[in-house]
Amino acid sequence: MDQQFLYDINSVPQVNLRNRTTAVLAGKVVGGGSAVNAMMTVRGTMEDYNRWGGFFGNQSGWSWEGLLPYFKRALNFVPPNRDVADSAKITYNTSFWGNSSGVYAGWPSFQYPATTITMDSFKGIPGIEFPGDSGAGRPGVYWYPTFMDPKLVARSYARTGHYDSIKRENYHLLTGSKVTRILFNGTTATGAEFTQGKSKQPTTVKARKEVILAAGGIHSPQILQLSGIGPRRLLDSAKINTVVDLPGVGQNFQDHPMVMASAIDRNLNVHPSGDDMFNNATFLTWAANVWAANKTGPYSIATGNAAAWLSFPVISPRYAEISANLTSQNHASYLPAGTDPTVAAGYRAQMQSYAAALRGNGTAFYNLVLSGGASNGIIVDLHPLSRGTVNIDTADPHGREPLVDYRALSNPLDVAIMTDILRFTRRYYMNNTLTTQLRPAELVPGAAVTTDAQFADYIEESLSPSEFHPVGTCAMMPRELGGVVDQDLKVYGVQNLRVVDASIIPTLPGANTCQTVYALQCEKQAADLIRYGSSKVVASG
Ligand SMILES: Cc1cc2nc3c(=O)[nH]c(=O)nc-3n(C[C@H](O)[C@H](O)[C@H](O)COP(=O)(O)OP(=O)(O)OC[C@H]3O[C@@H](n4cnc5c(N)ncnc54)[C@H](O)[C@@H]3O)c2cc1C
């Protein structure tokens, strides 16, 4: 990944990860993360979005039903090539997709046969569903597309799909500029201040109607805090005048933690396979040639197109116990000392919702991407219970990047959940009637790791707290639950200011986040909320 397109930020040392720090990857380029991401085109389950709507009651448009039309408008789905779909057994259902957007959900022209075998191996484990499409809003094992323009066989993203085609006199895209704060007259947002290039001299731009902030999960809370919107105590210590004391800004920070867990199927003699890209010179030459000739073959695959997204009862025999433990926790005790009672109340509401989700089959907690080779690697906890913070650095709030603290594993039940995710992965490879003939051998964490204490040790040693999906720091929740924006994405306590990016996501979807951001940002917010002035779902199909 080209570092010039990324911010240079490291997290604060993670006390529960032996003081390790982690790189905070966020796109510093037109299109943001959509310009640098791994192009996995997935959405969460119905229950994920109903959880958002649930914070506002039954009438909320922020539910699966309310968002589905926007998921359809957000992407232009182009089905896979018939031959590839037939040979790889790719299923899809176009009723979950649209075809009007400039951002494409396409498919590579090649799939490794082993992908189908490793997907089918999940049939050896009870309780797993196989929804026919990744957009169905159900947990399970399924194929999903890629953010790719199928004609160009190139990344399709916010710039190519939206910005490049805007031809209006009143649209200006200023590259190399950095917003330093939002300007206010009293509590009414009136514009923004920014610097250009290396100049420290600020310029201002005035808003006739409203200011719309979309700087992402790390920088939107920073800009609000620098503008005087945030927890008063933090702003006081940074010597920033408080415009509105909004305790939730920069709190409720979530990202998807991941660890390595892999086994190798020693008898998986199916070729070509993902492994041939590393150790078969003839195959590599062929792959390079077909790519150079017509952009086909394995190089047309981004990060794979198949994965397991599984609910907790399917993977954990102790789901009821963990759910009960979450219900009875003193939730606020796992938040930073001095957390505002409204933010604590929001956390409690989220944990109650997750306690129910841990017992049900509508929320995916487990994710394993299938590589098309004899081994797979990274597994993801899709709903961490720990909450972090993104706060300005009070020592030099204007000069430094914000302090990013994942507070990984601060809720101890995250260790129990990750342990069961690891144990399930072992079961999938090693104790599965459909994989025994493949002669699997565990690579990591390794057969010697068996007890809870050993798993905890491995997790502390190796967990990465981020899959580069920062959300929650300007949460769309009621103000009395620590929310920062209302259902119309308007910032509480001020006028004429909205936030429209991943930071408003109150709880992570059980999926990579970009498709959800397209639905809420480009379509739901921009097309309807601003144009029609309300969050009523006015679009259909
Ligand atoms: C390495 C990586 C891999 C990922 N892989 C996937 C994937 O495979 N699938 C998936 O679904 N999601 C993936 N994601 C996540 C996805 O890209 C993000 O969820 C999405 O881009 C978030 O959109 P956003 O608008 O909230 O913020 P961003 O995309 O971060 O956009 C924010 C924009 O604001 C700009 N900005 C920030 N601060 C300022 C300022 N002060 N002044 C001016 N501009 C500013 C930034 O430069 C950026 O252009 C990945 C992300 C990364 C970084």
From TrEMBL:
InterPro entries: FAD/NAD-bd_sf, GMC_OxRdtase, GMC_OxRdtase_N, GMC_OxRtase_C. Residues 19-257 form the Glucose-methanol-choline oxidoreductase N-terminal domain. Its cofactor is FAD. FAD binds at V29, V179. The keyword Flavoprotein applies. GO terms for biological process: secondary metabolite biosynthetic process. PANTHER family: DEHYDROGENASE XPTC-RELATED, GLUCOSE-METHANOL-CHOLINE GMC OXIDOREDUCTASE. This is GMC oxidoreductase.
